[in-house]
Amino acid sequence: MNILFVVPYSPSPIRVRSYNLIKSLLALGHNITLLYLVEKEFQPDQLINSASFKATGFNLPKWRSMLNCLQAFPSRLPLQAVYSWSNQLKEDIQLFISQQNFDVVHVEHLRGAKYALMVKSQYRIPVVWDSVDSITHLFRQTQKNHPKKLLRWLIKFELQRTEKFEKLLATKFNKLLVTSPKDQEEFLKLSPTSPVEVVTNGVDLDYFYPIPSQERLKNVILLSGKMSYHANVDMALFTITKILPFVWQKNDDIELWVVGKDPPPVLLQYSDHPKIKITGTVPEILPFLQKSTLALAPLNYGAGVQNKVLEAMACGIPVIASPLAVSALTIVNGEQVMIGEDAQHYAELILKVLSDPETAQKIGKAGRTYVEKEHSWKRIGQKLENIYYETIESNSK
């Protein structure tokens, strides 16, 4: 197949979904043309080396994104839908389609949806829109939980527009993709006939791998994620202020590592604590995953598949998580992961795992086996390939 991939950011080892879907499709023998908006950390054409892959990046200045949002205020469009709009990218999509015969166009995220709508309205090429998550579902949770009143008001404003826009999008494309059954359910609530399918996230099983348990540090809890994201900040603060006091009552040797880029001042204030390490940006997460004793993910709100959980499981370390953090996974509590209920329960599970190496090793091994079976990018790429073939066939009728 000849595939046009449009992504409103730079696919990379951090933007794992589009990056690994592209790599998986290339391994299956397909040709991919990627059009994307440039981010400073990574250039996809430098990360993916294949004769079947061509990438063109477009710069979108921050002021342009802000102007897009200001211009959208009087309209009914959500700000997320216009934030990444670039006339240059739109024109190059049109140019590439006029010059090449593409079998399918794949567009990712709500921020890319306008590009997908443009292609669908102007051409007969089948369009697959990968929403990733239901942003309506995410905003509903955020509007209730975000600590800043002004942002809660803005999210409430966005929620009304986003729900209407996602309801429209649910009916416009040949296929709509999401990462979890919950996100699929949310789109079907908006439009019961929506052609929405679950294509879950995976994990790079060659990169994320276990090391012998005796090489890990003792009494180290890892909490990871992009720390500029409010749900991760909430999770970290919950761990520090609610869970750790219970833990330290029983064992004050236990350390917490908070690993992720751009932690805000509300987290950085804990940097001076002798048992808390807040790293900020790190070159790679793997060394921290492999050296820690357990991974913690007490996420109180969010959507989709949590990559932080999959990566920890792939490294064979035991994971203690909230029900929400593992809601998209087909796991059994106490077998592949341990699920906490409240701060005291999380503390009890942490102390149990840290004091019982046999249980820790058993859960870590079962977690690795689970992701090998259910979340390999190779398997996910094959599912996406089949969706493309079905979409192309149904579009030709």
Structure keywords:
397 residues, seven-stranded parallel sheet, alpha/beta, Rossmann fold, six-stranded parallel sheet, 16 helices, 15% strand, globular
What report would you give on this structure?
The protein folds into two domains: 2-202 and 376-395, Rossmann fold; 213-374, Rossmann fold. 47% of the residues lie in helices and 15% in strands. It is built from 16 helices and 13 strands. β11, α13 and β12 form a beta-alpha-beta unit. α7 (135-145) packs antiparallel against α8 and α10 (230-250) crosses α14. The protein is globular. The mean pLDDT is 91.
Largest sheet: 7 strands, parallel
The average pLDDT value, as a whole number, equals: 91
Assign the CATH superfamily of the largest domain: Glycogen Phosphorylase B
Helix content: 40-55%
Number of helices: 16
Strand content: 15-25%
Order of helices and strands: EHEHEHHHEHEHHEHEEHEHEHEHEEHHH
Distance between the termini: 18 Å
CATH architecture of the largest domain: 3-Layer(aba) Sandwich
Class by alpha and beta content: alpha/beta
Short description:
Helices cover 47% and strands 15% of the residues. The protein is an alpha/beta fold.
Strand and helix map with partners:
Layout: E1 2-7, H1 16-27, E2 31-37, H2 44-47, E3 53-58, H3 62-72, H4 79-83, H5 87-99, E4 104-108, H6 113-122, E5 127-132, H7 135-145, H8 149-169, E6 175-178, H9 181-190, E7 196-198, E8 220-224, H10 230-250, E9 255-259, H11 265-268, E10 276-280, H12 286-291, E11 294-297, H13 307-314, E12 319-321, E13 338-339, H14 343-355, H15 357-374, H16 377-395
Parallel strand pairs: 1-2, 1-4, 2-3, 4-5, 5-6, 6-7, 8-9, 8-11, 9-10, 11-12, 12-13
Helix pairs in contact: 1-16, 7-8, 10-14, 13-15
